[in-house]
């Protein structure tokens, strides 16, 4: 039995959650489905992305565990059909390159960016993932 059974929610942090939500809404073409609190400055928002409705949350950095800083040494990779095209779209939206497009083996390609709020987002094309969806 696997300890890690699948991703539930990837949580990014930002000083201004509303500004981050607007940036991600523009990038993804969808609005958050959840916002807390409902009125006033947001402390947390959440999007559902892709066929599996994976959850992407954005939390106010003030609520992050002590010692947490912008960005992370851990990278969550999101499946994309075309890493180069996805990277170009993110860069056009104001992200910066963290790691360029990198072949990782037969048919595996990755890249990563830093969003305008200091979070690392990984992009991956994997034939194992695409074959299941």
UniProtKB/TrEMBL annotation:
Location of the VOC domain: 6-126
Gene3D superfamilies the record matches: 2,3-Dihydroxybiphenyl 1,2-Dioxygenase, domain 1 (3.10.180.10)
The organism's place on the tree of life at top rank: Bacteria
Entry-linked PROSITE patterns: VOC
Annotated InterPro entries: Anthracycline_SecMetBiosynth, Glyas_Bleomycin-R_OHBP_Dase, Glyas_Fos-R_dOase_dom, VOC_core
PANTHER family named in the record: GB|AAF24581.1, GLYOXALASE-RELATED
UniProt name for this protein: Glyoxalase
The organism of origin for this protein: Brevibacterium aurantiacum
